[in-house]
């Protein structure tokens, strides 16, 4: 079984040693320096966001990209988990340990890594750093891997409006930050453009600096139950691991849930509820991770803003649920909306 290194506030040297001993569950003779025992082997690492691997969503999508690089490129991967209640200093230590261990690229999963990556990238100018979901920190060795979440969420809004029988749908955001507001904005616009009379219930689980809204399923479940009580029969949650709670609540009530980041219909941890996962807004986090690793391995590392949008299938809407595939009117509306966005006929808002 793959072991995941958990780096907290232990010394950087010991953290690097721990990584070299446990990365990907394989033994290694790396000394923790920037050199590798096999100079031909690319070593790549991802540092997970809140919730860690196993969230059935954002982090798992990043892991899938690393796993693909291991399988297809022969890359040696390493992973590092966050600690509850950690700050920027902890992230700096984690990223430093990964870079010092010879990993290149080192990828921070989520905007919370922005300040740490800015600092560590300057200390390791020959290492490429990937920063997912943030463009605020840039540098010659930083690749900003970003997505048009609002576009995929617009399609989810179209689907929700078409699937709803009550005319009331819900949006649950994990933490009220600008990134998640993009999901809300696109979703609400898609709903209203499809059914101007529809009602969109909006709730955020926590406010920064409290980021529990990305990690605690009970919060998502309670919020969804509240929206169900108010008549919502389709609920879309952009809340990381906490979103699994909203899926549970909606499915248990026999209503529709819309997943996020990964195709949650196909996530093993949500198998009990998959029949009621109508669709998911997908972000190609997996390929963004894979593409960055491949670019470094090929000697042409990506830098600057690397954007994934609807036109390139960098975001989209999944159609795995057989019940979804039967909804011909819904599919036609979603397909038309996608074409109109790509053609520039619809401009999707990035803020509510």
From TrEMBL:
InterPro entries in the cross-refs: BMP_lipoprotein, Peripla_BP_I, PnrA-like
Domain ABC transporter substrate-binding protein PnrA-like: 49-333
Keywords recorded for this protein, A-Z: Cell membrane, Lipoprotein, Membrane, Signal
GO annotation, cellular component aspect: plasma membrane
CDD domains: PBP1_PrnA-like
Subcellular location: Cell membrane
Primary site of residence: membrane
Signal peptide: 1-23
Membrane-related topology note: Lipid-anchor
Taxonomic superkingdom: Bacteria
UniProt family annotation: Belongs to the BMP lipoprotein family.
Protein name, entry field: Putative lipoprotein
């Amino acid at each position: 079984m793959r072991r995941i290194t958990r780096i907290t506030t232990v010394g950087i040297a010991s953290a690097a040693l721990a990584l070299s001993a446990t990365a990907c569950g394989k033994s290694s003779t790396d000394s923790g320096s920037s050199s590798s025992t096999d100079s031909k082997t690319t070593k790549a690492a991802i540092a997970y966001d809140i919730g860690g691997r196993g969230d059935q969503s954002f982090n798992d999508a990043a892991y899938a990209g690393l796993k693909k690089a291991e399988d297809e490129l022969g890359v040696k991967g390493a992973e590092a988990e966050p600690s509850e209640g950690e700050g920027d200093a902890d992230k700096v230590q984690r990223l430093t340990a990964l870079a010092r261990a010879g990993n290149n690229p080192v990828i921070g999963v989520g905007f919370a890594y922005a300040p740490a990556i800015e600092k560590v990238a300057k200390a390791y100018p020959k290492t490429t750093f990937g920063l997912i979901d943030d463009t605020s920190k840039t540098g010659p060795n930083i690749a900003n891997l970003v997505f048009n979440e609002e576009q995929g969420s617009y399609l989810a809004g179209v689907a929700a409006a078409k699937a709803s029988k009550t005319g009331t749908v819900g949006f649950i955001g994990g933490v009220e930050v600008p990134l998640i507001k993009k999901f809300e904005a696109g979703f609400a616009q898609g709903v209203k453009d499809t059914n101007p009379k529809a009602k969109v219930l909006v709730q955020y689980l926590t406010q920064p600096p409290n980021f529990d809204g990305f990690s605690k399923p009970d919060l998502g479940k309670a919020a969804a139950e509240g929206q169900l009580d108010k008549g919502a029969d389709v609920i879309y949650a952009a809340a990381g691991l906490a979103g699994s709670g909203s899926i549970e609540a909606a499915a248990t009530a026999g209503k529709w849930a819309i997943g996020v980041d990964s195709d949650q219909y196909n996530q093993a941890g949500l198998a009990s509820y998959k029949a009621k996962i109508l669709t998911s807004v997908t972000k190609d986090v997996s390929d963004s991770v894979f593409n960055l690793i491949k670019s470094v391995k090929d000697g042409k590392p990506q830098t600057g803003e690397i954007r994934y949008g609807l036109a390139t299938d960098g975001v989209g809407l999944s159609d795995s649920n057989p019940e979804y595939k039967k909804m011909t009117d819904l599919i036609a509306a979603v397909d038309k909306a996608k074409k109109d966005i790509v053609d520039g006929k619809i401009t999707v808002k990035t803020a509510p």
